[in-house]
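#lab-general

N.A. 3:47 PM
ok so I finally got the sequence cleaned up, no stray characters, all 438 residues accounted for. can someone with queue access submit it? mine expired

B.Y. 3:52 PM
send it over

N.A. 3:53 PM
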Amino acid sequence: MTEFEQLKEQYMAIDKEAGKYNRPEFDRVYEVIRELVAGRQDVGDNGNLELPLVKGKVIDEALKRSEYVVDAGFVTDFLKYRELEQAAREVQLKMSNLSTLQNQESSTTQESSTTQDEWKFVHIGVNTPQSLPYLIKVVNDILTKDALQGKGLYENITNIPIEDELEDDCLMIEAFGMKSSLVPYVDELKQYNIIGSKGFLNDEMKNLLLNSLKSLATFIKDNTKSPAKVKNKISKTIILFDAIVVWGLFIQILILQGLCRWIEETNISEKDDGFKEAKSLYHWIFKQLAGKECLFCYNLYSKNDRVRLKPLCEYLYSTDVGQFVQDHLFKKQLPMKKLPPELDTPEAKKIFQKAIKESIMTEDYKFESMADASIFAYWYNVSVWKKPKYEHMNKGKDLNSRYKWKPFESLFGCNNLANKYRKDGQYKDAKKIKSLFY
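B.Y. 4:20 PM
back already:
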């Protein structure tokens, strides 16, 4: 018997013993525990196998708040279950570390067989601190258990053909005062075998995806004048799928990608009412989607798992967001432009990094518009080079003579930057850009 098989047998024995004490009411206690340890980085109740489960006063408080503390039998069973749960997690960690070492030994062979034009995954080790932010979401108590019991990603699914009435419901939905359709997205999912009689998603998950998309699109339609409300609705919907191990991440990605495609299909132009709102929402969704796809790349999927994932990987690789993520993670970044001498200072670099972090400027010193670039240059002059404010004129000779524009024109690749300046009160992004300097 191999070491992994011995650990598996040990885990199953602990799991069987824990089943003797488990009660459905434990779920309420765990909800309270999660609330009590929210934000703590020293306990493993948020999914980190390397850290011990919380004990002592937190458990006492959770039992008290869940109103089960008066039931002595319940308390005894919960504490015993908790003890076995910790033992099982320790075995899980050993199994994960052993599996990671085996994967790392074969990673060179796997990488050599990977062509350039396909989705790639980042090889990670469970026992490295740098990987923990990703592992909290990917490696948790349920993942190993699902792998052992043939559930989740490791389930052998048999798809039963059904009628596609639900797809008829993904037609035109009006939002931002314009009509938009989910049909092109559904067609793409069929093309890449994400859905269909032999699709990557089974029937239940396909219906879940399409219903979620229809619900969100309809909500956006009814709340186009409430962007914060819309974003919160999307966030709350996405968070619901955190509870579904592995597959929940796939559904989250496909929901966000579907919303991007839906907005792309909106027949709207820059002159139309609602264009700015639609553009802002699209950029926000794009950012959330990119984060989820980066998480997808940090994995513990085996070679066989990746065969199963091939339709999803091929589809994601065909999208703008997918290409962006892959370029960011795997392709050599182009060297940044050489800074002009006036801007090649620690203070300037600190501001540039802040602008990049806030998505005001890209890593190669590009702005969404030259108006943004001019406001950035203006406030750099005012706050860093201590030039007096001169905002009563929007453009022209006086601005040119009072401020240094050439270093920024050289860096940003433009001419007559002063002529593109708009004072703070006349430009919606000015406040955000100004905040970089204060």
